[in-house]
Design a protein that fits this description.
608 residues, Glutamine Phosphoribosylpyrophosphate, subunit 1, domain 1, Rossmann fold, 6-stranded antiparallel β-sheet, 17 helices, binds 6-O-phosphono-alpha-D-glucopyranose
Length: 608
Amino acid sequence: MCGIVSYSGRSNALEVILKGLQKLEYRGYDSVGISLISGSEIITNKHVGSVSEFSSQISENSLQNFKSSCGIGHTRWATHGKVDLTNTHPHFSNNKKIAVVHNGIIENYLELKTHLEKLGFSFYSETDTEVIPNLVQSFVDTGMNLIEAFKETLKMLKGSFAIAMVTSIEPKKIFIAKCKSPLVIGKNKGEFYVASDANALLEFCNNFLFMEDETYAILEYGKQPKLFNFRGNSVKVNFKKLKLTAKQVSNKNYDDYMLKEINEQPEVIKNIISEYLSDSGFKSEFLNLNKKDFKRIIILACGSSYNAGLLGKYWIEKFAQIPTNVEIASEFKLRNPVLKKSDLIIAISQSGETADTISAVEYAKSKKCKIVAICNTPESTLDRMSNQTIFLNAGHEVGVAATKTFLAQVAILFLIAINLAHNKFKKFKIEEYLSEFTKISDKIHETLSFTSQIESLSQKYAHFKNFFFLGRGLAYPLAIEGALKLKEISYIHAEGLPVGEMKHGSIALIDELFPSVVLAFKNFYFDKTLSNALEIKARNGKVILFTDEQISFDSKFIDDFLTLPQVKFDMEPFVFIVILQLFAYYVAKKLGRNVDKPRNLAKSVTVE
Ligand code: G6P
């Protein structure tokens, strides 16, 4: 899993590749490496850490003085082999003439390694990637030209891969291939740019060719691109102009992107309103569905997007009375689920590149289901494969932990639910919900004003090693999301549970060192939730209560509580999520974590 960039042109390849890699760091930031070609030399530099660290070091090292207009680069999220320099891409053939970067997993690499070892090849890294340049060399050694050798190599690889290769044998050419992992070619005045996504290249070009699966290409500055399928047949080269523009973001005025993005949430709601709503209700482009088109909805997603989907299920079933399942995308196709043409798929993915979600959607497409995507990234893989995409319009999210994009997903799902309900039931009071929705931005603003209280609360609890997050109804998916936020940025163990389930086992874990964050909505079984909180207190557990009920609690009963702004019944998640994000953020800050780039994670996980 990783991001790859390649370039063949007339400018400084180092600059182009570094800029591209910076944009691809959402795919991994364990380590970074670049190989540049000049004459018959390949110069490589690698670094364990982020692209910006690598860039700032580069002025002191050999790459900087090395003029090249052809090369490859890679930003890694480790799959095979630990995070160290040896496993950092590019990887080389034994004769050092072939360098390769790779995104994906070569599933049969052990078999290929054994085959190559029998031919006398040695391996220096623990990666699956290293078999690729060596396979190419093994074919070249038999007298094949590079194109043939590349094609023969591709035929032997099983799994998912996007590859870019440069060689000192044909120093001006880049060789690229795609099978399941995304790869896009950009073109501008005879120059060629390659990357894992188009956004990485927007600064340089706006003509793109999204490679199809099982195709490969040979690109060279000033020459016609050559594109083939894996059988070796020529494929039509069709570049299209995209309207996307490069956007620069900075975390000016904030310590981190995450805090900035949490604070952008009132704006996110305003953007959604201006994009999809008019004075008379929904704009026609919001959801192009004929209600007879489907009988059941299946939501597919991973991570925070899955948690947003759980909120969507609640609203769609309650308001529109349409049976809705939410499926963890990585599990979905494994059980050969029963899908009918009349099932509508809602695929949720901020990045539109999550391999598990894409693979689940592919399965649904093979069953002829209609796909509606909820996504933040135009021209992403998910966007291109769906019948309709409802964009989040949340702006670029840099922090790895989803905050403003989670809120935007939740908002879109809420709007879908009331839109479907309105189409189905004449009596559904959509105006009431829409009018309340227009006030949500202000309510989030109000919630953000609790920042100093939540900061001191978080500091009080940051030393605990375990947390429960508990709620019922709509508060249950929020509890899972609250726990996920805390886990991913603070590295504290946290579990989100339906509060009613505590007594069926998990309450056994409760003692004075295991606090619970309880979410209690005034209008939804408040008394029952409070009773559950007291059951925890009765066992010496600490309770932090977030509620919108205007009552005070004695500290004998509840250790800490915050009373949040009230909103219309069923719209509570819009304010409660903000407080959970702030809680996780300040706990992580107290512990000195890098909240924007937590360890071991990537913003978009592009391997299954
Ligand atoms: C990764 C990220 C999560 C995200 C999940 C799904 O695991 O770290 O924050 O929720 O992927 O990403 P997607 O782009 O599909 O929404």
